[in-house]
Structure formats: structure tokens, C-alpha cells
Amino acid sequence: MQAAVVERYGAPDVVRVREVPRPAPRGGEVLVRVKAVAVTSADSRIRGARFPSGFGVFARLAFGVFRPRRTVLGSSFSGEVVAVGAGVLDFAPGDEVCGMTGVRMGAHAEYVAVAANKLAGKPSAVSHEDAAGLLFGGSTALYFLRDKASVGPGMTVCVNGASGAIGTNAVQLAKHFGATVTGVTSTANAGLVADLGAARVIDYTQDDLAGIADRFDVVLDVVGNLSIASGRRLLSPTGVLLLAVAGLGDTVRARGNVVAGPAPERVEDFEFLLRLAVEGAITVVIDRTYPLCDIAEAHRRVDRGRKVGNVVVRP
User: Fold this and answer.
1) CA distances for 155 relative to 145, 211, 221, 258, angstroms
2) Of 269, 268, 250, whose CA–CA distance to 260 is shortest?
3) 104, burial (CB in 10 Å: exposed 0-12, middle 13-18, buried 19+)
4) Which run of H or E residues covers position 115?
5) Residues 297, 194: one domain?
6) H helices then E strands: how many in the chain?
7) Of 153, 176, 190, 303, which has the fewest CB atoms closer than 10 Å, so is most exposed?
8) Assign residue 280 a region: left if phi > 0, alpha if psi is -120 to 50, beta otherwise?
9) Collapsing DSSP states into helix, strand and coil, what is residue 15?
10) Is 132 left (phi over 0), alpha (psi -120 to 50) or beta?
11) What's the rounded Cα separation, in Å, for the pair 261 and 53?
């Protein structure tokens, strides 16, 4: 099968499409023909060995000290079941599914073997591109807003980085939960963020977020340019600061009204997000879709930090 292989850390050009053996599903696994897969900020960071401040040593130990231990990246995908391993009863060949592979990655390929308990059935009303684009950003936004901040009616939420994969989902989820949303983005994306549900848009090229007078019940930073100190200054007296991207120092110091750390990958969350997509309560924003042969260009698009929503590859 064809797969995007990363054998050394570096710029997007280190990603090469090559022929590799097709995986076989083991017991409890499902072999999926990948129809669409996201190229995320996490893929970009791993490929380039550009980890949040303080995490470099730990990340190298996890992903490979001198070169990537997992040479095929990619986690958030959608596709069709082609075979099942022993003991799998919930899925059969022909089923359309989506999911995330976690630290095993491996989805930037024509086929991926995934534990059956990490898969959700893909509704026919949701395209493969939308399913692949939804899960990474959607599950992260859902975890922080619903599970860690209990966002609900009457609350005010500020999303810093409102036009990216996490941010576009966060704006819509916060509004869905009944909050009044302020989105922080660039001039070019202000209209999109407003259309997604932000009652107010702050253009960071014109206004410094740290200098505004507003105070929020929840501040979600998905960019990584707020510290605990600067983020807390934006909070109401009972507000919560959510750091989806944080260095080691802030992650260790996060306590009380500050939350940091990775979001879990849970099938029940995937199913919740997919239901919202079917109902039209959430729109998946796709920046660009590339064929697998152009995956290096997809990495470049992510690296530039200008993508809107999700970058998706079709193997």
C-alpha cells in the first residue's frame, strides 16, 4: 500500500510517499481503507520535532530520540472496513467508520489497522472529509469546554485562535451549549468566525487581547500565546482558563481555575460530535483537501499557521 513515511525529523519535504506492507488486523482490530485523514498541528509538530516549550526531551523519548519511532503519522481518519480481526463483532466489511489512532498514528496511508473500540460508525450524512476533520479539533474543544469548564447557558466564552481546527469547533460548541462567544482571529477570518456563532470577534492584528477590558467565564487558548498570568487577567472572578496548547511549566502549574494537558480520544465523544454534524448544529470547516501524493504540501500548509479549520488528505 501507499503511505506517507517520515524517517527523519525535519521540514515538510522529509515526508515521502512510499510503498509499505499493508497491515493485517490482529485480534480486536479492524482494517480500514482510509478515505480521508487530517493533517493536524500534532502531525506537524512531531514531523518537525517542534514540541511545546519544555516538552522536547520527553517528546523525543516518546516519539523517537534521533528519528521518528512511528514513521507513518496521522490519527484522525475516516474510511471503510475491509477486514476484521478475531473477536470483532460490532463491525463488518463495508461499514463506514471514523476514529483516532492515538499515539500509534499510522493513518496517513491507504490502510490502517485500528482497535475496534476506538471506532465510531460514520453516518451517511457526514462525508469522509468532514468526519476526518471533525474528530481531532472537535474532541479537544468538547473536552475542555464541556468536561473541564461545564460551559452552559448565560456564560461568556473567549476562544483565542477561533479559526483553526480546534477553534472553529470550540466557537460552535460553546454557542451550542448556550454561551455567548467571543472569537479571536485575524482580519481575513473574522467573517467566518462570526458566521460560526461568535457574537463578537476580536481581530488580533488590530487589538491586543491582553489589553481588552472584557472579562470572561471561560477563556480557551488554542494558540499557545497566553500564559497562566496573562490568561487569568481575562477571567471573571469565577472564571476558568483552558490551555489546550501549553508549555511544560504552565502544564505543571495548572491547578485551581487553570486546566492544561491533552484531551482524551473517546468514542462516545466522536458519536456526540457526529450527531451534531448530522443535525446541522456543527459545521466542519475544511481549509484544503490534498491527494496523498501531495501530503508534503499539506504539511507546509499546516506549518504556515494560516490554515482555516482542517487540512485533509485523501489517500
Assistant:
1) 11, 21, 17, 17
2) 250
3) middle
4) strand 111-115
5) no
6) 9, 15
7) 153
8) left
9) strand
10) alpha
11) 13
Pair (245, 146) in one structural domain: yes
**136-195 pLDDT, tens per residue?**
999 999 999 999 999 999 999 999 999 999 999 999 999 999 999 999 999 999 999 999
Q: H/E element holding 173?
A: helix 165-176
Same domain, 42 and 116: yes
CB-CB contact of 12 with 297 (8 Å): yes
What CA–CA distances, in Å, run from 19 to 3, 241, 254, 299? 6, 45, 44, 20
C-alpha cell at position 157: 466564552
Helix, strand, coil shares, percent, the chain, to 5: 35, 30, 35
Task: Take residue 132 and report the three cell numbers written for it.
Answer: 476526518
Q: HSE on the CB side for 152, CA within 13 Å?
A: 3
Closest CA to 96 of 76, 115, 77, 71: 77
Taking only the tens place, the pLDDT of each residue in 18-57 is 999 999 999 999 999 999 999 999 999 999 888 776 766 6
Domain count, the chain: 2
The boundaries of the domain holding residue 77 are 2-122+285-314
Considering only 85-94, 146-155, 202-211, 264-273, which range has the smallest mean pLDDT? 202-211
Q: Give the 3-state secondary structure of residue 209.
A: helix
Structural domain includes residue 273:
no
What pLDDT is recorded for position 247?
76
Angle between helices 267-279 and 165-176 (to 10 degrees): 70
Residue 278 falls within a domain, yes or no? no
